[in-house]
Amino acid sequence: MILIVSTHQLMAQKYSCRDGYVKFFSEAPMEDIEAHNNEGTSIFKANTGEVAFSVPIKGFTFDKSLMQEHFNEKYMESDKFPNTTFKGSITGYSQGQPGWQDATANGEFTIHGVTKNVDIEGEVQFSGNQCTMKATFPVRLEDYNIKIPKVVFYNIAEVVEVTINFDYKKSEDAN
To answer: Which domain holds residue 67?
Structure first.
């Protein structure tokens, strides 16, 4: 009986998200640029802290279609590098604690084909069969070999602000 209960608890600690929200914001002297994406997918194993996510680059939408076209073709080369990914672990939280908790994600963040080890400060909350993670952090474009042509240098910031908000649900999958 104890084995059955323990196995059930381990299964109940895996969460998945299929519509994670990601936003980036570029504040530059000539114009601000903002894009949104609701296509992030992620798996989180709360008992171990393991987390992985993938965000399709072509899922970002802009107010101006020309910006979206330039973003995909010239800067992000989304046909060549279709996804941004993270694989690592979340630490600093307690599953049984109610309310928002500070947490840190440590792992490999890949953008534009370049992988960097990062530490991202954020928050996590557990509520019933759900878990929510959110964070806002800077990304330096040159760190990921994203080139900004001199002609638009004043239109695009060298460091963009990235915001994520993933709403997870307990997964029935035991793996």
So the answer is: 18-170
pLDDT in tens, 62-105: 998 988 998 999 899 999 999 999 999 999 999 878 899 999 99
Nearest to 84 by CA among 109, 108, 118, 119: 109
Domain of 28, CATH number, reads 2.40.128.110
CB 83, CB 55: distance < 8 Å: yes
Q: Which residue has the tokens 């990304």?
A: 139
Q: Are 44 and 15 in contact (CB under 8 A)?
A: yes
Cα–Cα distance between 126 and 72 in angstroms, integer? 35
Would you say residue 147 lies in a domain? Answer: yes
What is the domain count for the chain?
1
